[in-house]
Amino acid sequence: MARLRDLWPDIRELIDARRGILGTGLVLILIGRAAGLVLPWSTKIMIDDVLGESRADLLAPLALAVLAATLIQAATDFSLTQLLSKSGQSLIADMRRKVQRHVGRLPVTYYDTHQTGTLVNRIMSDVEGIRNLVGTGLVQLIGGLLTAGIALAALIYLSPTLTGLSLVLVGLFLIVLLRAFKKLRPAFKERRKISGEVTGRLTESLGGVRVVKGYHAEGREAEVFAAGVERILQNIYLTITGTALVSVSAQLLLGGMSALIIWMGGREIMSDAMTLGDFTAFVAFSAMFVAPLFQVVNISTQLLEAVSGLERTREVLQEETEDADPARSEEIGTIVGTIAFEDVRFSYEEDKEVLHGVSFEARPGTVTALVGSSGSGKSTIIGLVAGFHAPQMGRVLVDGGDLSKIKLSSFRPQLGVVLQETFLFDGTIRQNVAFARPDSGEDKVLEACRIARVDEFAEKFPEGYETIVGERGVKLSGGQRQRVAIARAVLADPRVLILDEATSSLDSESEALIQEGLSYLMKGRTTFVIAHRLSTIRRADQILVVEEGLIVERGTHQELYAAEGRYRELYDRQHGLEANLFLAPGEGDKIENSFAESDEGAALGKG
């Protein structure tokens, strides 16, 4: 009950949004249940008056009354099903939209700690049971309780003594029911948690099917999934046992009340304290009184699942979105693109600082390259530029304004990102390019495709730009996917551009084609480049060498190479390794010098 009190504000919000529909549902239920009272009362009249006193004149009105009540019940039941079922489905759709919209605005750090499949489960499955909490289940429960109240009044009128004894049995049943609910609620919540975890792992396994098959790990994945399914099964067994005990208790209640009514009712009829009609009506009204209790048992699973689903949904909705920080109150117009770090310190976990006083400035129209060992902090710097994180100390400035105070909704549209692992949606080439600016005209989309050389392969497909690329773009080659990503960035027309290993996984021919698109894309923009191929950043305006969260060197390629420090060590090691593995002595210098002097080699520099 304490948990239900905690959830009441959320439940009340849902109820308030559908107050009219729920009110109409209650009225329909009351009309239907009132019509249902005609039959047991007509039985009493039939026995005591029509048969007992030979009142044949009452037969026709009595039959018409029963027929009318039946028609009213049928009409209200049909209307109620249509009204509440459709309202419940509408509620689910609204909740899914609300949760998805909220999840989409959560910070990147939230996604880092939650499985994709679990989030999908929260959006699609956890809201399912809510329709029972504020829809059919709730209205039927309230209507049933009101009916029980009316039936109880009739029972007290017919036989106070027999009613009192019956209520003792009902009280015992309610104690059992409440204890069972207390045990079952955590079990249902745990089931949703397990289901989310299993769905998450299954989503990952299916998404990484090539890795799974590449390592012949189908059997291992099947074992992991089977273990998760077994956990769900054991949880279901537990809840089945609990609900079965509740059902048995309900059956015992029904049997006990039947035996009590037969014994006490028979004695009262024989002592003339009760007529046969009264007894028959008492039996009928007893059924109407007990029915809502059985209804509670029948919908208890649905209600418990609804409560646990609402709990999990509430947990997500209570997560703060990126722009929820009251400090982010400043709107920013079109930016020039000057990005500056002032003594920035950052940590993902407390007491584990990743960046230690990083300072630099990147001006519009320049390329800033970040190099260093894996885990040195390069991607963290990029994440801070994109506003994915905020520094614990120091400031990240955009045109002199503190990024931590700027609304990301006004900054992000001016940001473009091209990653090493290009993500494409399972749609057409045209849709993936237009994702950056869905309202762009056809001519602008085609122009972006031409600049990024997407037209060279797209127009060769039978469906052209309407070619479906498949999940994550699997139907395209790596170079083709990357060109689509560059076209998307061209269409976005960003002021700040981030290239995170944008060409490292491509062959030389694909890279040369892509560099042309990148050259156009970087003109006049503030560009940040992370590249392991150091030869591709020779023309960068500034190179920042990052090691263990510090900028240990900065300058141009010529300056850093001449300094014979960490950059030269990295450069010579990489260049020497490439030359030894793939080239004859001296060939590496020739190829690299030729590449550096070419247009493609200059692409990542002056543009």
Would you give an account of this structure?
By secondary structure, the protein is α/β, with parallel strands linked by helices. The protein has two domains: 317 residues, ABC transporter type 1, transmembrane domain (ABC transporter transmembrane region fold), CATH 1.20.1560.10; 259 residues, P-loop containing nucleotide triphosphate hydrolases (Rossmann fold), CATH 3.40.50. A six-stranded mixed sheet has the order 6-7-8-3-9-10, with helices on both faces. A four-stranded antiparallel sheet has the order 2-1-4-5. Helix 3 runs antiparallel to helix 12 and helix 9 runs parallel beside helix 12. It starts with a helix and ends in a 10-residue tail after the last helix.
Percentage of residues in helical conformation: 55-70%
Our Rg estimate from Cα atoms comes to 36 Å
Summing up helix and strand content along with how strands pair, one would put the structural category as alpha/beta
Number of helices: 22
Termini separation: 66 Å
* Strand order, sheet with most strands: 6-7-8-3-9-10
CATH topology type of the largest domain? ABC transporter transmembrane region fold
Low-confidence residue ranges: 577-607
Give the rounded overall mean pLDDT.
Answer: 79
Query: What's the total count of β strands?
Result: 10
Overall geometric form:
elongated
Q: What's the CATH first level of the largest domain?
A: Mainly Alpha
Q: Give me the CATH superfamily of the largest domain.
A: ABC transporter type 1, transmembrane domain
